[in-house]
Amino acid sequence: MKEPVGKHLYSEEITPWFSKKNYPITILLIDDRPVVGEVLRRKLSSEKDMEFFYCSNPVRGIHKAIECSPTVILLDLVMPEIDGLMLLRFLRANPKTREIPVLVLSTEEEASLKGEAFAAGASDYLIKFPDPIELIARIRYHSKAYINFLKQQEAYRELQLMHETLEQRVEERTKELRQTVENLQNTQTQLIHAEKMSALGQLVAGIAHEINNPLQFISGNITHARQYTQHLLALVELYQRSNPDPSPEVKGFTQEIDWEFTCEDLPNLMSSLQVGVDRILEISNDMRNFSRMDQGRSIQVDIHQGIDSSLVILQHRLKSNKIKVIKDYGNLPEIECCIGQLNQVFINLIGNAIDALEMGNTPASESGDTVGRSPEVSLTSRVPTICIHTEVQNDSLVIQITDNGQGIPQEIQDRLFEPFFTTKPMGKGTGLGLSISYQIIVEKHQGVFTCNSTLGQGTEFKIVLPLHLDATVDGGEGELESAKIPLQRENRDPPTSGLEQWATA
C-alpha cells in the first residue's frame, strides 16, 4: 500500500486544540435558611450528574464558591447579614467567580427588583420555589454555557502554548539554519584561502626556482671572473715593468681608456657585482622560505623571520608609497606555530596598512591619543609610517602592527572580521583577508586578535599568541612537528612587484 502524499512533511503528532476534559455540573446554594437548602437538595437528588453544595453564611459565600468551583450559583436575594445584591456585586468583582452564572432566588416579582438584579450581574431570576423541571432546565442551560466557556478558555491556553512552542521551534530551526549558513561560509572561506595560498606558494616557489639557476651560474662564475681580471691586471703590470717606454700608439690608447682609473675601479666593480648577486640569492632564499605553506603543520620558528619575509614581499609597495617601516622588535623566543598561515596574516595586515596610507595620511592633533600604541609611532607625523612592535607579556607573544592612516569608523569596527565584508572599492578587495586572519589566529593558534582604531589618527591590530600550543584544543591537526627554517632577516628589494597582489586580494 502506498504511503499518502505529504506524510513526511511533518513527523510529529498534532495535538487537538479543543479540550477533552469533562466538567461536572456543580451547584452552590447561598441562603441563610437551611430549610431552603434541604428543599432544593431533594428536588435535585434525582439528577445523578449534579453535585450540590450549600452555604448558609453569606459572608463565606465567595470563599465557598472558590473552594467548590460551581458551574452555577443559586443566590438568595434577601439575607440578614449581607444583601444578596451586594454579594452578587462581590462575586462579579472577584476574578475567580466573575464568569460563574448566578441564578437569583426571590419571593418578589417586582420588575424594578429584577432590573436591579440583572444590573448587578445576575444571569437569571427565579421565584421561590420554582418548578423542579424548570429549575433543572435552567441549571443545565447555564451550566452548559459556563462549561463551554471554560473549555474555550482551556483551548485558548493550549493554543497559546502551542503557538509559543511553535515560535520556539521556528527560532531554534532558524538558529540551526543560520549556523549552517555560517559554517558553509566559513568552509567556503577556508577553501578560497587554501586555494589562494596554494597558488601563491606555487607562484613564489616557481619564480624563486627560475631565477635560482641563472643566479647560481652567475655566482659560480663571478669568482673566476674576479680571479681572471686580477691575473690580467698583474700581467699588464709586468709588461709595463719590462717595457717602461711603450709606443705612442699604446700611450694614446692608455690615455683614451683612462687606464689608471680602470685598474683602480675594476676590482671595485667585481666586488659590487658579487654583492648584488648575493642580495638576489638572499631574496630568492626568502621567497622559497615564504612559499613553504606548511598545510597546518606546526613548527618551531622565529616570528621576526616570518615578519621580515612578509616585508620583503611587500617592499615594492612600501617604497613606491614612501612608507617608513619601524621594526620595534623585542627579545622573543621561538614559538610553535604554522608559519605559512601567520605569514598570510602579516601580509594581510601590512597590505591593509599600506592601502590605508595610500588613501592619504591624516595627521592627528598635537595631543593625539596614543594609548595602547607603540611609542615609536608618532601619529602626529606627516610621514606615512607603519610600526611593528613585538614583546612577551604574561607567557604570551604580542605583535602590534600600527599605521598612522585615516583610521576606521567606529560603526564598522565590529564587522571587520565578518566574511566578505570590505570597505574597499569594487574589485579591489574580497573581504576575506581579515576573516581568514581571525580564523588563523583565534581558531588555529588559540590566540587573540583585536583592532583598535581612532578616526583620523590611525589603526592598530594586536595579535596575542600563546608561547605553547595546546595540542588537545580543536584546531591542532595531528602531531606537532618541529623544524628549523633559516629565514633571512635583512630588509631587501623583492624581484617582482606582483606577488603582493596575490597575498592581499
UniProtKB/TrEMBL annotation:
Gene3D superfamilies: 1.10.287.130, 3.40.50.2300, Histidine kinase-like ATPase, C-terminal domain. Residues 482-505 are annotated as: Disordered. Residues 26-143 form the Response regulatory domain. InterPro entries: CheY-like_superfamily (IPR011006), HATPase_C_sf (IPR036890), HATPase_dom (IPR003594), His_kinase_dom (IPR005467), HisK_dim/P_dom (IPR003661), HisK_dim/P_sf (IPR036097), Sig_transdc_His_kin-like_C (IPR004358), Sig_transdc_resp-reg_receiver (IPR001789). SMART domains: HATPase_c (SM00387), HisKA (SM00388), REC (SM00448). Keywords: ATP-binding, Coiled coil, Kinase, Nucleotide-binding, Phosphoprotein, Transferase, Two-component regulatory system. The modification 4-aspartylphosphate is found at residue 76. It catalyses: ATP + protein L-histidine = ADP + protein N-phospho-L-histidine. Residues 206-469 form the Histidine kinase domain. GO terms for molecular function: kinase activity. Its EC number is 2.7.13.3. Pfam families: HATPase_c, Response_reg. This is histidine kinase. The keyword Glycoprotein does not apply. Residues 156-190 form a coiled coil. It is an enzyme of class 2 (transferase).
